[in-house]
Model the fold of this input.
Amino acid sequence: MKEQILILGAGFAGMWAALSAARLTSLHDRTDIEITVLAPQPELRIRPRFYEAGVENFAAPLLPLFAVTGVKFISGSASEIDTASQQIWYHNAQDQLVVARYDRLIMATGSHITPVLPGAQEFAFDVDQLESAARLERHLAALAEQPDSAARNTVIVCGGGFTGIELATELPSRLRAILGDTTPIRVIILDRSPVAGGRYSEQLRGVIEQASEELGVEWLLNSEIKGIDETGVTLQDNQHIASNTVILTLGVQASTLTQQIPAQRDPQGRLHVDQHLKVIGQNQVYATGDVAFASTDDQGNHALMTCQHAIMLGRFVGHNVAADLIGIAPLPYRQVNYVTCLDLGAWGAVYTEGWDQVVKSTREEAKKIKVAITNELIYPPQAERELAFAAADPLAPFV
Ligand SMILES: Cc1cc2nc3c(=O)[nH]c(=O)nc-3n(C[C@H](O)[C@H](O)[C@H](O)COP(=O)(O)OP(=O)(O)OC[C@H]3O[C@@H](n4cnc5c(N)ncnc54)[C@H](O)[C@@H]3O)c2cc1C
Done:
């Protein structure tokens, strides 16, 4: 019987884990090792683009790529993991419960928003997953049919992190395309911080403030949200803002499947892993992407829940799991470079380098970098075996 590497999730981390494991087993002629990806859809969903219009287009097919690289795909959703018997249970495409065994398991099930605020579940939108972003897009388009009112023309974005800022700065042009140039639209970011972009470097904050001002995006700072209902948002000080469109961008947590692995997790539910991305205290289970709490360097930095980290974590974990079964030395995960490229709608974008977020370019120049990243760099490689394997090498240059 073949040895089984089972990867849960076909996102950035899961896809690259599969390609990297396939590359190493191929280099060592180990046809006795089978690599399987299990996920609901055989496609890479490009989450970093979900704040843009046309969200249904932001998914790339994976079956041709998996076919040429010898990766097996199972359509299903994992619901139970038993690390003692090395088995998982999943619901297949026909919704039957099926069991699968593994020799090595890679957790790559990503993250999701948790709508914990009162009323959020019923009344808020988000751009976290393809289905929910598509729901928001349909809602925005339908605003044109509603009678003109302050509530119709006001969109509230809860949370001023990267996703909130990218969405809010994109919304003025999206709303004008739907409601017309003369409609008095308002886009408001609610954040509990006392300054806009409070968790970023001073330089980056300056750019965010300037772009927000020029685009007319308002920041309502020191805001604690009390609740959301069909009329809008109420703050802790009982201030009420009327809006038919409240969008959540805060409260991201790792996939709840991580709770089934007996191991230490960080406050976002990510599994603590060692330098080879093996879950600490587990011998057959590895974690990658948004479900892994991994050290990136010797300076005390850790991978963030970003695609930038998920891609490299995927390449390293696939390599190391295959190395484990082949019996060769694994590679310690290292990702010293850290960049950010934040879209700022019609204003342009901002590109920074380093953990201290030094601004390197802005406006149109940074926008070109952003487009190159989100429209090309993060997409799957071509379905050509040699090209895919070259790209999957964890030591190949990235950013
Ligand atoms: C709006 C938005 C903007 C973003 N912008 C940026 C950006 O500009 N730059 C950046 O670096 N990052 C950005 N990110 C973050 C980035 O998208 C994530 O960090 C990245 O997708 C994580 O990759 P992943 O493979 O760990 O998880 P995901 O991409 O979420 O993939 C998870 C996979 O697991 C599957 N799965 C989930 N549950 C199960 C289950 N029970 N059984 C089987 N399979 C399952 C899913 O279907 C999916 O295939 C953004 C995210 C969002 C939502």
About this structure: The chain has a mean pLDDT of 97. The first helix runs from residue 12 to 27. Residues 23 and 320 are 11 Å apart (CA to CA). DSSP finds ten helices and 24 strands in the chain.
